TrEMBL record:
Active-site positions on this chain: 175, 227, 400
Protein name as annotated: S8 family serine peptidase
Lineage of the species this protein comes from: Bacteria, Bacillati, Actinomycetota, Actinomycetes, Streptosporangiales
Recorded superkingdom: Bacteria
Keywords for this protein: Hydrolase, Protease, Serine protease
Entry GO MF terms: serine-type endopeptidase activity
PANTHER family from the UniProt entry: CELL WALL-ASSOCIATED PROTEASE, SUBTILISIN-RELATED
Start and end residues of each Peptidase S8/S53 domain: 166-456
Entry keyword annotation includes Hydrolase: yes
Keyword Protease listed: yes
Database matches in InterPro entries: Peptidase_S8/S53_dom (IPR000209), Peptidase_S8/S53_dom_sf (IPR036852), Peptidase_S8/S53_subtilisin (IPR051048), Peptidase_S8_Ser-AS (IPR023828), Peptidase_S8_subtilisin-rel (IPR015500)
Amino acid sequence: MLAASVMAAVTGTAQTASAGVRKPAPVAPAVANELNEQGQATYFVMLKGRADLGSARSLTRHSERAAAGYQALTRTAERDQKGLRKLLTGEGVRFEAFWVVNTVLVHGADRALTERIASLPEVERLVERRKAERRPETPAKAAAAAEWNIQQIGAPRVWSERGVRGEGVVVASIDTGAQYDHPALVRQYRGRTANGTFDHDYNWYDPNDYCQRIGKPSQIPCDLHGHGSHTTGTAIGDDGAGNQIGVAPGAKWIAVAAGGLFLLQEDLLRAGQWVMAPTDRTGANPRPDLAAHVVNNSWGWEQWPDDFYTQMIDSWISVGIFPVFGSGNSGPGCGTVIPPGQGPGAYSAGAYDSTGQIASMSSRGPSPLGAGTKPNIAAPGVDVRSASPDGGYVLLSGTSMAAPHVTGTVALIWSAAPHLVGDVARTKQVMDLTATDVNDVTCGGTAADNNVYGEGRLNARNAVELARNISPS
């Protein structure tokens, strides 16, 4: 059995600590079970400390904010994790330290070591390492009008009336990767140089060398499943020959291959760090001055009631990175919105079809985390045509398809109103205020803000117009 003091933390049976004895950090039941069954366990150690990101928030230049945030986060992680890292190194146990969330992934710790870790005063809790299966998107049965989705949110009006297509904004994709040389993606890839060659350092990251595992060249961008090319295309795609599949085709994109049909927590943390401080393809030499502006997250955990990624999202927001998530494909029941999109910092999208009707599969609120109305907004997500990794195009449905419409709209707003770059709160407000209200209080809320459509249907054109008329703060 696991040592008594640690078991008490797991079961909650410890009432008060003896005089002079500190109560150990809580250990998740799944970790305790793994230890009891196998004699060792792999888990995340969550540290108590939080970085002071006030200095980053006070800056205006995006590159400077990212650099200040990176310095504060890495400094805090090094300080708080020092004792734990020393202990693990001394015991010869493999571990990986993170800074975007103050946590350390420990591999194969036995009972005795786990008890010592839980007793460290800087440790907050021990949580299990999880793997999530991605719920596949639904292939379309019949095509709607070509790029109905782009037309419906008013993106072409922004292009024609304001001459703005997302220029100057970098969109990051945390997904299955992307086909970098797809006709609708290649010109917008930040790794494409002026002479038409490619430099993938700081523009592409494959933390587990997934591409090589599926027979692709190592450290060259690929798409593990087809999902990432589609979502990236919806955010920024345009081949210049009539396939205007993206909301902000003047923006640039970078990407992380965070997994295919399965997602590992550590890969998502690596990705979360990379969008704030991109590295070369080996994961070395971070450059926060090359941080993304907005990150599309068309992923989530079906059953993960923990706030594991709250720190990551808060870190992004503190340095001015806008976090977009899908709400999940678990509808039509109420309370089905999934993490991390159900959290207070995440701006999550529900999905509707070409008639403006919410999709049955689109997850509804309310959020179990008390994060207010969820989803935050609704966007096209049924029969959406976008890029496929074979160089062609495919129609898919899901809130994964809705999210990049929001991502592209943020790019348009920040391109048209540079004084809002990095101002996540006011940018959310701009989209909220200009969304088209839909009265559906099936899952609670009001006509103007409910748990089915959120603030309403996304309107990129009106959002840009409002943003241009907001005075710099």
